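## Example pair
The file below holds two records. Each record gives the amino-acid sequence first, followed by its structure token line.
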Amino acid sequence: MQPIFYFIEYIMLVELSLKDFLSKTASNEPVPGGGSIAALNAAIAAALAQMVANLTIGKKKYEDKEQLMHELTFLASEFQNDFITDIDADSDAYNAVFEAFKLPKETDNEKNVRHEKIQEATKIAAEVPLNVARKTLKMMELIELIAENGNQNAVTDACVAMMCARTAILGAALNVRINLSGIKDEEYVSKIAQEVTNLEKTAIEREELLLKKIKIQL
């Protein structure tokens, strides 16, 4: 998201209750914005994936899958922790852009420094959601394994996890693109834009593939 000039009171978003987080999101403050919500969707996807794996562990019918589920639960937990951190990282990146725009611009030197700081901060603001999208795409493989090998009574929960993951990637991609629009480095912009396009395309394909597989089973 591009900067809107508001006074921002710093607070750790992940320390808020769900109700307070939603209230803050709904307020006229610019954070948390779409990037933080994309990271939240990814964290929810990771949590749902763990749930399905945990509902598989200890079930006699899935004894041969138990070790796999233990491993996948651990990996999903690691993803979840990363995405929780990204919720605040995205807002922090926005705040850094906001602060860069507030730098003085009276002299040529000040203008040059301000421009460089804005460009640096905007690149970071693009890279935070980009990394969310990259990690979420990797997690999609994990979700697919859980859906195919886990407790089939909870297979639709795995599908919802995949849907949340796809939403996280598409949402993160939008936030990458809006930040790219403010970056003057054309080579950097072109490279990242192409990667984002590939991430979006692959995410949609993986979600569709899993839903088709599950539909056949139901």
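Second record, same layout:
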Amino acid sequence: MIKVLFFASLRERLGFEQIDIPADNIKSVTDVYEQLIARGDQWRAALETPTPLMAVNQEMAFAHTAVNDGDEVAFYPPVTGG
């Protein structure tokens, strides 16, 4: 399983602080992102505009960053408040 965390306005828009997704067929952050937006219009709207920043295991990540079973992937808006 992969733990997916949402911060700030993403958490508010989605109504989730975290979810777990199966690690099957997940190779990169892009795969996680695509699985999330496939959940429907609310997910797509929240995650597409503006494009969120991403982290894997608490380190900044990019779309091509590898993701493995047991990893933590976080999404957060480009600007967050204190």
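Notes on the second record: The mean pLDDT is 94. The two ends are 30 Å apart (CA to CA).
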